[in-house]
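User: Is it possible to get a 3D structure for a protein together with its bound compound? The compound here is flavin-adenine dinucleotide. I've pasted both below.
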Amino acid sequence: MTDRVDVVVIGGGQAGLAAGYHLRRRGLGFVVLDAGPAPGGSWQHMWDSLHLFSPADHSSLPGRLMPTRPGQTYPDARHVVDYLTDYEKRYDLPVQHGARVHSVHREGDRLLTESDAGAWRTRAVISATGTWSRPFFPAVPGRTTFTGRQLHTVNYRAPADFTDQRVIVVGGGNSGAQIAADLTLHGRAQVTWATRRPPRFLPDDIDGRALFGIATARRRALDTGRPDTGGVASLGDIVAVPPVRAARDAGLLHTTPMFTRLTADGVRWADGSHSGADAIIWATGFRPALAHLAPLNLRGPRGHIPTDGTRALGEPRLHLLGYGDWTGPASATLIGAGRPARDAAGQITDLLH
Ligand code: FAD
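Assistant: Yes, that's possible. Here is the predicted structure of the complex:
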């Protein structure tokens, strides 16, 4: 580990590790500050049955292929944690765990990063704090009235937690589909899946591999001035991973339009009817975890920080990695994390020299 710190990387999930890999290749001194007690980022917290939507060899960070696991085409979350743990060690990345960053301030020609593990003054900062710590709940009337259990995707673990219960899963994206499939295939809960719009399943042959190919083709088209190919969003939202396909094919996955409000013991539907419920699982997405950057006053509309590639428009010493497509196509996926990390390390090298 080098003692010279040119760059602070905030967040030690896959995006922060990919940044570390490229900063090391550039010969820059850096530290990675990660709030979590152990390696693996948010993969440590995902539910028991979750599997990736891409095979291992299409889920790799720069430099090292994710190993395949016999009998598992689509690796589970534990496998990703093992891979990231090994990645951190293999490249001897200087990650400090248990180091939550509270704030980043401007201080003359430096940025001051303050954390549980101390303060750093550097000429560049990379923020890669993901979205897992900011679960989003939509504003639905009666949310505080409901006396049953309310969970978010981040709290869901396994169907056994809902045996013989009436469960309403809310949200028409991948998490909603996978949790509804998990509950209906493996549990003994009575499941209702409520979505604002009818869910759009991607064709069965489109997995993460194909999605990455489509996102790459779109980026190439836009980069070279050719017409927009439309990208992934034009095809659908939900990847038909094996459990989702199995539940759908077994006729277990039905959706119903969103309820209008929660009551003390259930939900009220648009036609005025009422259903009792023991638990609501909000699979309603996330927002970027950017509170530590508030002192820089960079937020644009929709809560994002406007960027040119990965670099913050209002603060050229700050780069953002992960979070979503606004920091680069597919940048919040395992296979897509490498390219924006490489670009950020290159631009920081130019800034420092
Ligand atoms: P994270 O993994 O969340 O890492 C961020 C790190 O920053 C964490 O360790 C956190 O502790 C730390 N942190 C947060 N705030 C601070 C702070 N203030 N100071 C210091 N540290 C901080 N992608 C795929 O490629 N394939 C898939 O199959 C796939 N499936 C997914 C399934 C689900 C349910 C979800 C939610 C996402 C999925 N993704 C998938 C998308 C993406 O790959 C993951 O969300 C991934 O974890 C994002 O990595 P990250 O490094 O950006 O963020």
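Residues 10-16, 33-36, 41-43, 46, 52-54, 59, 100-101, 128-130, 132-133, 175, 208, 289, 292, 322, 332-334 surround flavin-adenine dinucleotide (CB under 6 Å). The chain has two domains: 7-134+286-352, 149-201+237-282.
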